[in-house]
Amino acid sequence: MLEPAAIGLDLDDVDQRAMPSCTGWPLTLPAVHVVLPTDTARRARSRALDLPAGFAEPALALARADALQLVRPEIYDTFATWRELGAREVDQQRREALRAQVRELLVRIGASRDSRIVVAIPDPVSEEAQERWLRALAGIGRVQLVWRPVLTALGFIQRGPDLRRELPFTLVAVELGWGVLRANVLEVELDEKAGLAVPERRRPGVETDWCGLDPPGVVRRLGLRWMRDGSGRLARARVADPETAPSVAGEIEEATVELAKKLAERLADARRVLWLVEGPLAAVHCGHGRLGGAVVRGLRRYLPEPRCIELVEGKAALVAAGAAECARRLAAGVPAWWDALPQLEINRVDQRGVVAFVPLVDAPRIAGGNTYTHEVRGVALPAGAETMHFVLFHGPHPTARRLVQPLAQRLPMEIEVKLVVRQQPAQGRARVDVVPLKPTPHFRPVKLDWDLLEDTRWDRETALRNLQQRVGLRYPPKTPVPAGLYHWYETRLPSVLRRFLRRSPDASFEYDAVVRECLHALRAVRPPGRAERTAAVSSDGELHPGLREDERELFERFGAKLDTDMRALPHGSDVRRRLAVVGAWLYAAAPLAVQEDLRLSLKRREYRQGLVQAAGRCFADEREIRLFFARCAEVCRGEEQNTDWMKALGQILIYREEACRWLDDGKVRLCLYGAVRELERALDGRPKPRPQIFNNAVLALLGLLRYRRQRPGFLLGRHDDPIPSDARLAIRERLAELVCRLDRHDPGPAAKIREVIRFLEGKGTDQLIAASFDE
Fold this sequence. Notes:
The protein is an alpha+beta fold. Helix content is 41%, strand content 19%. Strands 6, 7, 8, 9, 12, 15, 16 and 19 form an eight-stranded mixed beta sheet that branches. Strands 17, 18, 21, 22, 26 and 27 form a six-stranded mixed beta sheet that branches. The chain has a five-stranded mixed beta sheet with strand order 3-2-1-4-5. Helix 12 (509-524) runs antiparallel to helix 13 (549-568), helix 13 (549-568) packs antiparallel against helix 14 (574-589) and helix 14 crosses helix 16. The chain starts with 5 loop residues before the first strand and ends with a helix.
């Protein structure tokens, strides 16, 4: 008797929209597919000979050496579909008979208590039906119910072409079902530790009706007839009436175009998209082709240059192979699939009375089939509250849901609570429990179940406006606030990133995902305690008095995540440019001791260009401007040949006039020397300067002249002049040398430098700044 360690089971045609009239109508594909992973084709054949009666000759040939598919012929007469299981009117005795037959089938195959059994289920499917199947198969093995599109992806990864060079890519499983066209999006990535391609499931899918009929109506509309193979078993279906075929194919094609339009926004920035067309009707013969071909034609019509479209025939065979691969991975303890975790946010009020939403999920995904649990501390119920307003935002849902909880009495004191977050990604359920840290008679735990909350139909802006005068959670509570960099970066970085990433009117969900990843990285760092400070101190000695280990980890984790995300995006995309700006901002604002570990090296051109954009847009207050100029001064004091710092410096001074009031003359003097030195490097012994370096250095000089206009005593030889007259003379002499070298080759730059010299002598005009910058 066989003792397989992994079994993949596919119960064909799962659909919860069942009708009692469906009972007894034939199936388009064999009802049960079982896949037993083996090592070689020879071993697979030998196992086939050892099977009990009824399985010695498999109905389907070996598709690969490691997969053996078995079909029990006599099961056709009494086998019921999942659709029948979903209908409450179906006879209980018939359902029990079905589960008994599946149990008998697994026992005859040789399933033991240690076998991994993966059963394909649809989405959605009732929890009641899932529990019935788990009870029916209890004791045979370790049974797991897995989402069908995930198994479709695993089956294609196992059987399809080698796509490892294309990773990561987006896989769209388009299912041509009974009256419904569904599309589910999965992201396939390489798990470096296991060396396997792992799909990541993302809810929800997209669907559209192509005929608006229930399953029996579809059968009558198509006039389906089933053809039999040589042994008399049902093999495949066809449309009986040839005049009906063109109109049906046209309806499916139009529905496919509508489906592709719904997916266009979600796939806008995908590097490579693989489309799988499958489903119970995909292999139905229709005239000179199959109904799945109509879906392919619709996709090609909407997508002028589709990156890849695969028509998969024989859905159950592919899903069964994916189920077996999933069971094999689970048995081996390697990742089978990931479930994406949609963000969950709750309203809070900070100590200044500002209402915002706090993210409660600290990870972007979780191992497939598991329940996510997380505790959030550092929140409290405010003293004096009589009614609490809990408002939640959940993942892709555009509107908020709420619970208004009256309290038994007015709270005499502030009560610290913890938020216990639970999510079941497979079912899309989310729940937050508000539990006091210490037992108290003033407040009992509150359960916030997303499915049971009141839908307010508020978007984010409306929710923030309506919650201004209502009592919510206080975050953080009135406890001593930790001083130092950790608190500043924890509170400032998310708000600055959110403001910058949402500046564009066409911001899509990818921008919000970047902000969520930032918040995940920030919240994942343990709260500051009595951590020992390292000896890392920045050169200015004031902005960074010390750096804790948790602060270093905060910068490193977020920098690594941002760099990985940016590299995965296509070159030239708007999202990638914005991530480069965020990375450059983080690099400029980070302490010098951490910059080498951020993986955001400014040797990469994208980060240098991002720094130039970040200079005039992201730095919101005096502290950030000072941080940036401290770094500029370090660059100018050293020997770094990086004129992008110079260009960013010029942009700050030209666009942000108020920055001139915040800077130290000594650091500006260093930056001036650095700009002149960059002009010399631009020439580099050549008769004609390198244009990019030259333009950046000139732009820095123009910004410094704007600074001189705001600070009249600077560079004019007065008593408060921070630059001695001999140093000022040396700068002018060096610029004069540059003019002499440029005159005979390029009079344009020479004229610019002459005007700079006139500014140094106090004889220029302010209009030169704008004119030179426009050039």
